[in-house]
Write a structure and sequence with these properties.
With about 675 residues, this protein is an alpha/beta fold. Helix content is about 60%, strand content about 5%.
């Protein structure tokens, strides 16, 4: 086929935004659309190659797969092999297990399926997946398996039937993508049936231009480049993808392919030497950038700085130039004599893939090769891997409105009912096991019930789709139980500020919690929730907290109100384990106490206004902040005193610090002592 330099330049327009998006450059919030541009280009080039060869009677499926193997596999295998020593040195067992699985999936052309099952593309954990970007290669490879066979089957029916069939397939795939963006967004992002229309859009361009000269149209080609760039700069992680929004980058790329003929402004721009040069190395550049970024994030205890990401981007370009020159080009052109024939290159590809899959199988079966880690790292990870089992039992997750009260496993032993109940969200769930043990040792009764992402009252709805309507029904059932039994004291533990602000915690030191916005509003507004930043919504939620606490007090209940528990921001055991692996001393580990106060200022100020003789307030920050280390909220003192099992939930060691003040408060309120 005739070489089109503007296609090389278009590859640069595709790859640069992807890299800058993965590097965290805010302006390129929609840089991921570069992958969609690549899909259209691939569909165009592959269809042109196949259809042209078919018209000449020269197409063979073996020859097609040989060319794809020469083009794709040598650099891909090189990148995977280069990842192995860094994975060995820096990855934690869970990361190594996931990496090992991804090696196997890449070699089997199903990494998109693996990553669909593991996490969303925009999830924080995905940033530490060195082979995450291979999902798009898997989609293309799956297309390469099916599409040539389709064209071969349609060859006898003529060009019109071929075009109509491809168009119909594209429309069906697009309809599935639009539906999937709402019904199954994560699957729609990764799987081929909702991505095929993008490749087929390129195929349609190829069939339109087949045996026809490319027209030049400045207006349409300019619209195309503007549509692509609009997606790059205006879209973000919240834009449904693929969906109707994807029409902009896909349609824009199609307009460029169809109408950026010689002489047009877009053709001249995309043919600039800088862009065509980047386009030539774009495949290698795409392969190298993600492992570099991922391993930097794995190796660093906090998010790498912009300077580090800039250096890594330059390194990716240099590695891409080298691999294009010494790996891509020799294999693609058949200059390596030993692998000059088709059967040899296919056989070598299968052999290397088998070796890599064997390596992946060892890493997977050995559960991440944990023997690599020092004892301190393993001790930290044990805290993360084994939160108190009472949390799994007494932290409910399915909106159970009518529990079989009382849940015996969530009560102190040898009692039929308790006059003290602890309620709240997962922050209450995290301290349940330690609370039950401490109350038992103190000779007190306790019943502990909590629900994920629910503040502890009925009448609320949350933005998290999974839990949106569950909080109201669950806590209505709990409140009915409280009213129908001889409950005297209610302990309230929740992540109050989360429901007010909805934002993940950023400790200001590189620890940014992996959490999507989760905020609350009144259940009565469930069909018209205020937005995350709506001041009126925040006022409603805070007023509801206070009203519900006062309502318990007015009805004669004692209340132990636990103020917000300090969040860590970073995954504490994970960070300590990585520090141990690299010989970095981070103990005692903590975050800014001022950061805690700023995060929770509104809730603290509101709770401070509550006064009642049957109310005792517990300030976790008085225990965890400014105590072990001045001006810091402590996360851990050593690997055997780790106070969090993730980035915001207390471990048993952390929960133990709160127990004596809570027990003293209960004793005071029930008349067993004179002072809280």
């Amino acid at each position: 086929m005739q070489h089109r330099p503007e296609i090389d330049g278009l590859r640069a327009v595709a790859v640069v935004p992807v890299i800058l998006f993965h590097a965290g450059v805010a302006w390129f919030s929609g840089g991921y659309v570069g992958v969609d541009v690549f899909f259209v280009i691939s569909g165009y080039l592959i269809t042109t190659i196949i259809a042209t060869a078919q018209d000449k009677g020269a197409f063979t499926i073996l020859g097609f797969y040989e060319r794809r193997a020469r083009r794709i596999m040598p650099v891909l295998f090189t990148v995977i092999l280069c990842c192995l020593p860094f994975a060995w040195a820096w990855m934690l067992p869970a990361q190594m297990t996931s990496f090992a699985e991804s090696i196997i999936a890449v070699c089997l052309f199903v990494s998109n399926v693996l990553f669909w099952q593991e996490s969303g593309y925009f999830a924080a954990a995905a940033e530490k997946q060195p082979l995450l970007h291979t999902w798009s290669l898997a989609v293309e490879e799956q297309y390469y398996v099916v599409f040539p066979l389709l064209l071969m089957g349609l060859q006898r029916y003529g060009a019109r039937v071929r075009f109509a069939t491809v168009l119909l397939a594209a429309l069906v795939s697009f309809a599935l993508a639009v539906y999937g963006a709402v019904a199954f967004p994560n699957a729609a992002f990764y799987l081929p049936h909702t991505r095929a229309w993008e490749l087929l859009a390129g195929s349609l361009c190829a069939l339109i231009l087949l045996k026809r000269p490319q027209p030049g149209n400045d207006v349409l080609s300019l619209i195309g480049i503007v549509a692509v760039l609009a997606g790059v700069f205006l879209y973000d992680e919240g834009t449904p993808f693929p969906s109707a929004w994807t029409v902009a980058p896909v349609g824009g790329t199609a307009l460029i392919i169809l109408f950026a003929g010689p002489g047009t402004l877009v053709h001249r721009f995309l043919s600039l030497r800088l862009l065509t040069g980047i386009g030539l190395i774009s495949y290698s550049l795409y392969l190298w950038h993600q492992p570099l970024f991922a391993f930097a994030r794995i190796r660093s205890l906090t998010e790498p700085t912009p300077l580090v990401m800039t250096i890594l981007t330059i390194a990716a370009v240099l590695l891409a130039i080298l691999s294009w020159r010494f790996v891509e080009t020799p294999f693609r052109t058949g200059r390596i004599t030993l692998l000059a024939s088709g059967p040899r290159i296919l056989g070598a590809t299968a052999a290397v893939a088998a070796i890599l899959m064997a390596i992946g199988a060892v890493g997977r079966l050995d559960e991440g090769l944990a023997f690599r880690l020092p004892p301190e790292a393993l001790a930290a990870l044990d805290v993360q891997a084994h939160p108190d089992p009472a949390m799994a039992t007494c932290l409910f997750d399915k909106g159970e409105a009518t529990l079989p009260h009382p849940v015996r496993a969530c009560m102190t032993p040898d009692i039929d009912k308790s006059d003290t109940i602890m309620i709240g969200d997962s922050h209450a769930g995290a301290i349940t096991g330690e609370a039950l043990r401490a109350f038992t040792a103190a000779g007190l009764d306790l019943y502990a019930l909590s629900h994920s992402s629910c503040a502890g009252f009925s009448g609320l709805v949350v933005s998290n789709a999974k839990y949106r309507l569950r909080c109201n029904s669950f806590f209505k059932g709990v409140e009915d139980y409280i009213a129908a039994n001889d409950i005297r004291t209610i302990i309230m533990v929740s992540r109050w500020s989360l429901y007010l602000d909805g934002t993940a915690f950023d400790n200001g030191e590189g620890g940014i919690e992996a959490l999507k916005p989760t905020y609350a509003d009144l259940y009565a507004r469930r069909d018209d929730m205020g937005g995350e930043n709506d001041p009126a919504r925040k006022d409603r939620v805070l007023a509801a907290f206070l009203a519900d606490i006062r309502a318990y007090l007015d009805r004669g209940y004692n209340v132990v109100l636990v103020y917000p528990i300090p969040e860590a921001g970073w995954n504490v055991p994970d960070l300590l384990a990585r520090a141990a692996m690299t010989g970095t001393d981070v103990e005692p580990l903590g975050t800014s106490a001022d950061r805690y106060r700023a995060r929770n200022a509104a809730v603290i100020a509101a709770f401070d206004t509550l006064e009642h003789p049957r109310l005792v307030k517990i300030r976790p920050d008085a225990i965890l902040c400014d105590s072990f280390v001045a001006a810091r909220c402590v996360n851990s003192l050593s690997t055997d005193r780790i106070f969090y099992f993730d980035d915001d939930h207390l471990s048993d060691a952390g929960a133990a610090l709160l127990m004596q003040p809570i027990i003293d408060a209960v004793r005071h309120l029930t008349g067993r002592t004179t002072a809280p």
